[in-house]
Design a protein that fits this description.
The protein is of the alpha/beta class. The chain has a single domain (about 5-265), classed as 3-Layer(aba) Sandwich (Rossmann fold). It has helices spanning about 45-50, 75-90, 100-110, 135-150, 155-165, 170-180, 185-195, 225-235, 250-255, 255-265, and strands at about 5, 10-15, 30, 55-60, 95-100, 115-125, 210-215, 240-245. It is globular, with a radius of gyration of 17 Å.
């Protein structure tokens, strides 16, 4: 199985490349999953993209088959893991697609190591609290963290994944993802949540100078539309795509529409 030691963790990854080997290849697309997820969240994206781009999926530290951290860490640490993996794999620059927590990691990666990022797709994610909403968002995140800390993983998974999908989602898909998230190590999940909840990248987004697509489900209750609009306003040249009928996990709930939006975006770069 493909593991690489990067810093103090072992990252599990999968690289799928069905591009034409006799042609000079494009930069790879790297898919970065959300909190409690893993590389399996991209099951609808890998086959749709791998004939046009090398596709790299990875389990972030404290997720999936990657190793557990021994202490608390920051999103910057998680982004640094990806940069180190890129270097091991010989990836100079990549199109980074991040969902939710993965979108936060993608922003951090682009800010800290801009030459490693050819483009950004930020799906159902956030950069921090818009002006005037700081206190409300802080209270919301504190309540979410308390709920995570005070309940077993099964209860956390049922509540958070139910809220993450729209009401119209296939209930079998919802049950499947609840089961997968419930399997997370509780302490690892808490560490990952703390790293994301204690972060605001909003003041730095003016530094970004990379093609950026922001995708949001129009029924996203976790990171609703105004947060995506705030991202677009703060990143020069960013454009917004709304996915009709999708909740927070657009890549799974509306994969055809999600894939079309991202492939069209990449085709214009």
């Amino acid at each position: 199985m493909p593991f690489e030691r990067v810093g103090d963790v072992d990252l599990y990854y999968e690289l799928v490349d069905y591009t034409e080997p006799w042609k000079s290849g494009p930069a790879p697309v790297v898919f970065v999953h959300g909190l409690g997820g893993d590389h399996h969240m991209w099951l609808y994206q890998v086959p749709a993209f791998c004939h046009r781009f090398p596709v790299l999926t990875v389990d972030l530290r404290d997720h999936g088959q990657s190793s557990k951290a021994s202490h608390d860490y920051t999103v910057a640490d998680t982004a640094r893991d990806l940069v180190r993996l890129f270097r091991v794999l010989g990836i100079e620059s990549a199109h980074v697609v991040g969902l939710s927590l993965g979108g936060i990691v993608a922003q951090q990666l682009a800010l800290d190591t801009p030459l490693a990022v050819a483009s950004l797709t930020l799906a159902d994610t956030v950069c921090g609290a818009p002006e005037g909403m700081e206190e409300v968002m802080r209270q919301t995140l504190d309540e979410a963290m308390r709920f995570i800390e005070e309940n077993p993983m099964r209860v956390v998974a049922e509540a958070r994944i139910t809220n993450a999908f729209s009401d119209a989602v296939d209930p079998v898909m919802r049950a499947h993802l609840i089961d997968r998230v419930a399997q997370n190590d509780k302490q690892a999940y808490e560490r990952a949540a703390r790293s994301a909840f204690n972060l605001s990248l909003r003041p730095r987004l003016g530094e970004l100078n990379v093609p950026t697509l922001v995708v949001v489900g129009d029924e996203d209750r976790v990171t609703p539309l105004p947060l995506s609009e705030d991202l677009v306003q703060r990143i020069a040249g960013a454009r917004l795509v709304r996915i009709e009928g999708a909740g927070h996990i657009t890549a799974m709930e509306k994969p055809v529409e999600f894939n079309r939006a991202v492939l069209e975006f990449l085709g214009r770069i």
